[in-house]
Amino acid sequence: MKATASILLFAAVLCAPPVHTQPDRQDRLLVRFDNVSRDELVRTGIVTEDDYGHGNLISLVLDTAWVILTPAQRDTLSGRGLRSTTVLEDADTLRLMRRAMYGPRLQLENPFHTYSTLNREIDSLQKAHPELVRVFTIGTTTAGKLPIRGVKLSRNVKKDDDRPTVLFDGCHHSDEILGAEICLAILRTFVERDGTDPEITLWLDKFQIYVVPVVNVDGYQVVTSGTDPRWRKNRRDTNGDGIMEFTDGVDINRNYDFNWAHGGSSDPRSERYRGAYPFSESENRAFASLARAKHFVASLTYHSEGEVIYYPWTWGGRKAPDDSLLTSIARDIARNIVTIKGDTNYRAEYGAGLVGQSYPWLYGTLGTFDFVVETGRGASFPPAYLVDGIVRANLNGVRTFLRRAGGPGVRVSVTDGHTGKPLDAEVWLPAIETEDVHRRSTRQESGVCYRLLLPGTYLIIVSAPGYEPLVLRDVRVDESGWTKIAAALSRPAAR
Ligand SMILES: [Zn+2]
User: Fold this and answer.
1) How far separated are the first and last CA of the chain, in Å rounded?
2) For site-directed labelling of 380, which of 89, 232, 460, 463 has its Cα 20 to 30 A away?
3) Model-level pTM?
């Protein structure tokens, strides 16, 4: 039905007589304002802020704004004392946006990476440090069928063992490319400073660190190739017209199956389009299968922008079961990341629970303490000269995160009491975990699970199908590290 309609439309366009006056082909101006504030611009009513590439304010980083205006609008603003520089005049709005975001060459500048230069760097890290870095594939993209790469970073990296796991991931939204830069910087920094930086050396021993720099690979290629700086969703041809154009795609940060129906938009043209059904997108299935296999204790998910950390959650007035611990970690990380301006630090705020984003899914279904770091401010990606500073500030957040991801908490190892075989078991803390979240479980291959907790005394119930549940009372969690619990389950006695 849709295909027929678009063929007819296409034919109609071909047969139409030449049009001489097309109001939307009028030239627009790309205008730069220096020393300006958001308030000054927005209160004119001419400059509109609309996220996701639909407003005429393209970016406002520090006190420099890039705006697309008609000549008359520019003159009106100038009449009100808002002095500007006209940088480019063009009928093609996308060209103006590209100039604003990519600079005069209309190409992404150093130190940003394209997908191939990013991969080349990661490959050379693996080659130089095969004992620390292992590259693998978590799945493929929906449209381009390209591999989505994951990197494991750890001492004895080739062996998957029962040490705690953590995750860093970037670019669910492909225009938010700072995430890829921060993930790459984590890999580089850890490899370079192993043996000289005592904390990093210890973390490489203690953790199995996973990094997925770019989840939305297809979209990332659109943005980093200089084609379209707005591209946020994946590359599914949502309107089915065979043409990949702006507003096509699924927002893969709305496609997870935890509270999917309550979040995002059902309108395929929306930049928050959640997809036809949960896990309709290959990127989401790939990410989820990695997360399910590895049972990350905690994770940092990079987005842009806002200089804020979102964490689970506020859900119709209810907070997450681990609210006080989540809040304490989120605030700690936020406090340790300085803003671009340098005068203050990131803020920590509750994120929504009722949305198919990755953080409610990670926390709600698996128990992973996920924190969304919205890096940068005023644009989905900043001018190149600011990148190093933002990345460096965020590496400080990574350090704070890792200081908190190693406990206090419990390490529960569940085995069959008769055979000693590790068990895929549920580990339930009934005083904490409400019906809002799924039961947490052990990693199948090792029978081990780690769970962050505030120091205190806890009741833990361990269960597996076919075994007698084990009730552990008065489990004491100390001020630091993991309280180790060995739970050997037995089969019910035969009658
Ligand atoms: Zn985002």
Assistant:
1) 65
2) 89
3) 0.94
Mean pLDDT computed over 323-352? 98
Q: How many residues does the chain have?
A: 495
Ligand 1 centroid to residue 424 C-alpha, Å: 34
257, 262, 249: which is closest to 218 by C-alpha? 249
Domain limits, the chain: 23-102, 115-405, 409-489
Contacts for 231-234: CB closer than 8 Å, 24+ residues apart: 231/174, 231/175, 232/52, 232/53, 232/173, 232/174, 232/175, 232/176, 232/271, 232/380, 233/173, 233/174, 233/271, 233/273, 234/141, 234/142, 234/143, 234/174, 234/281, 234/283
What is the overall mean pLDDT for the chain? 94
132 CA distance to ligand 1 middle (Å): 30
Same topology between domain 23-102 and domain 115-405 = no
Distance 149 CA to ligand 1 centre (A): 19
Which top CATH class is 409-489?
A: mainly beta
- Token pair of 130 as six digits: 């095969």
What six digits make up the tokens of 5?
């309609």
pLDDT surpasses 60 at 16: no
Side-chain-side CA neighbours of 25 within 13 Å: the count stands at: 4
Q: What is the identity of the amino acid at 108?
A: L
- Cα–ligand 1 centroid distance for 174 (angstroms): 8
Could you read off the pLDDT of 24-61 as tens digits, one per residue?
567 899 999 999 999 999 999 999 987 676 789 999 99
Q: Which amino acid is at 202?
A: L
Question: From the CA of 448, how far away is ligand 1's center (Å)?
Answer: 32
Residue 389 has pLDDT above 90, yes or no: yes
**Residue 408: is the preceding peptide bond cis (ω within 30°)?**
yes
Question: What is the 8-class DSSP label of residue 229?
Answer: T
CA distance 433 to 321: 6
The CATH number fitting domain 115-405, selected from 3.40.50.720, 3.40.630.30, 3.90.1150.10, 3.40.630.10? 3.40.630.10
Compute the 3-state secondary structure of the chain and give helix, strand, coil in percent, each to the nearest 5: 30, 25, 45
Q: Does domain 23-102 have CATH number 3.30.70?
A: yes
Question: pLDDT, tens digit, for every residue of 102-135?
Answer: 999 999 999 999 999 999 999 999 999 999 999 9
Q: What's the 357 CA to ligand 1 centre distance in angstroms?
A: 10
- Contact residues for 364 (Cβ-Cβ < 8 A; gap 6+): 258, 259, 312, 353, 436, 437, 438
> Residue 14: its pLDDT value, please?
41
Q: Are 234 and 250 in contact (CB under 8 A)?
A: yes
